[in-house]
Design brief:
This protein is of the alpha/beta class. The chain contains 10 helices and 8 strands.
Length: about 350
């Protein structure tokens, strides 16, 4: 794809300043502004709107991956029914979350059932949107939203390959069963993948440092379907001067040929994502994360899909974002991470 860097308008152009149509694009970013089950603080539904203007500050030449923009990158329009579903689901979930899912009555049970129903509808929407992108031969990337939103995309990708591996960056294991009663909770995405998507044959987790005993037991008893590199192990290896590239290659080797990358931004050090919904001390540095992507690009794996979730602009920021108005840091980091993720995926294809 030919591109004149001086021709793109900074304010109203597409993602990364590219005015690229879906017909031209080899990469389709699917925005999913949904955050009904976010259990500590909200904001992730604003991520696509905040990342778009921040992406106009990203240099299109990448020292690691060259010119990913040449493949064509487009941000698909937000389906307005998602905003309607999100508003209703957030409203119905609020009182349940305030009580941490306990002390339910008939009204809260009704609300819980409706939130679960909306979560199922969202999954079907994302599943079909991902199938449509795959049918075009393009790379699908889900842009959340909270970590519940990529389930349908993982399902669609798992149907296209004989065995799918999941590379999971996160502070949390996300293996709680129906957290606070929500079947499709952001804290349950990996549980639901293990339970319902047989086509996902192996999961490799990175950055995990916050989990409950039941999640730890699920990892231990997964019969090696889940391989977790805990953040404490990563930090100890770094302190001891270990060869981190070799450690990464060992962990990537546990995955099959076809890989889906699910990246919860709270897997990073919270100085890089201070407004994410559930920040946890520790985590990957920027250069750690870039090393993982670099090694993935050279691993011989093929990335078939991706998501970037749990990005949140600063609380109190305006609902509408334009260039220079988004409270920049979380969106700036996310935009650059997104471009690097795209570059990594394209290098494997």
């Amino acid at each position: 794809m030919e591109f004149d860097p001086n021709a793109a308008a900074a304010h109203d152009s597409g993602l990364f300043g590219l005015n690229c149509t879906p017909e031209e694009a080899g990469v389709h970013v699917i925005p999913v502004p949904f955050e009904a089950t976010t259990s500590y603080r909200r904001g992730t539904a604003s991520a696509p709107a905040a990342i778009l203007p921040a992406s106009h500050q990203v240099e299109l030449y990448d020292t690691e991956f060259g010119n990913p923009y040449e493949a064509g990158i487009c941000l698909l329009p937000v389906d307005q029914k998602l905003s309607t579903w999100n508003a209703e689901a957030c409203y119905r979930a609020e009182a349940i979350l305030a009580r941490h899912g306990s002390a339910r009555d008939a009204e809260s049970d009704k609300n819980l059932a409706r939130v679960n129903e909306l979560g199922h509808e969202l999954n079907q929407h994302v599943y079909q949107a991902t199938r449509d992108v795959l049918d075009r031969g393009a790379l699908p990337i889900i842009l959340g939203g909270d970590h519940s939103v990529p389930f349908g995309s993982i399902q669609a990708c798992a149907e296209r390959v004989p065995a799918l591996g999941l590379l999971h960056f996160d502070a949390h294991a996300d293996m709680r069963k129906a957290y606070c009663g929500f079947t499709w909770s952001h804290a349950s995405i990996l549980y639901n993948v293990l339970d319902q998507i047989d086509g996902v044959s192996r999961i490799a987790q990175v950055g995990i440092r916050d989990l409950c005993e039941e999640e730890h037991n699920l990892i231990r008893t997964s019969e090696e379907r889940v391989h977790t590199l805990f953040d404490s192990e990563w930090a100890a290896m770094r302190r001891n001067g270990a060869e981190l590239s070799s450690l990464i290659r060992e962990n990537l080797a546990t995955l099959p040929e076809h890989v889906y990358v699910t990246f919860d931004i709270d897997g990073l050090d919270p100085t890089l994502c201070p407004n994410t919904g559930t920040p946890v001390p520790g985590g990957l540095s920027w250069h750690d994360a870039m090393l993982w992507l670099s090694e993935l690009s050279r691993s011989g794996k093929r990335v078939v899909g991706m998501d970037l979730v749990e990005v949140a602009p600063k609380q109190g920021s305006a609902a509408g974002f334009t260039a220079g108005e988004a409270d920049g840091w979380d969106a700036i980091v996310a935009a650059r991470l997104l471009y690097r993720m795209i570059g990594c995926a394209l290098a494997t294809r």
